[in-house]
Design brief:
Layout (H helix, E strand, L loop, with lengths): L4 E4 L3 H5 L6 E4 L7 H4 L5 E6 L2 E7 L5 E4 L1
Parallel strand pairs: 1-2
Antiparallel strand pairs: 3-4, 4-5
Pfam family, one: hemP
InterPro entries: Hemin_uptake_protein_HemP
Protein name: Hemin uptake protein
């Protein structure tokens, strides 16, 4: 499973860093379509505060974030 990387468009240091997987540049006030973040299985692993979370799309086309 590939993991994506989000970067802030106004931060050139992060934008220039190379990482495996997808790279999506976003601004502070922008929105991103969930299909751009989720893999073909409808899942995205997120690391935050030393914890790992799973964001996934349900069969009813809703999003669930679980620890």
């Amino acid at each position: 499973m590939s993991q994506g990387t989000l970067t802030r468009a106004h931060n050139p240091a992060l934008a220039s860093r190379r990482a495996a997987g997808r790279r999506i540049a976003i601004a502070d006030d922008s929105s991103v379509a969930s299909r751009a973040l989720l893999n073909q299985d409808g899942k995205l692993w997120i690391e935050h505060g030393g914890e790992r979370y799973l964001l996934r799309r349900t069969a009813n086309d809703r999003l669930i974030l679980t620890k």
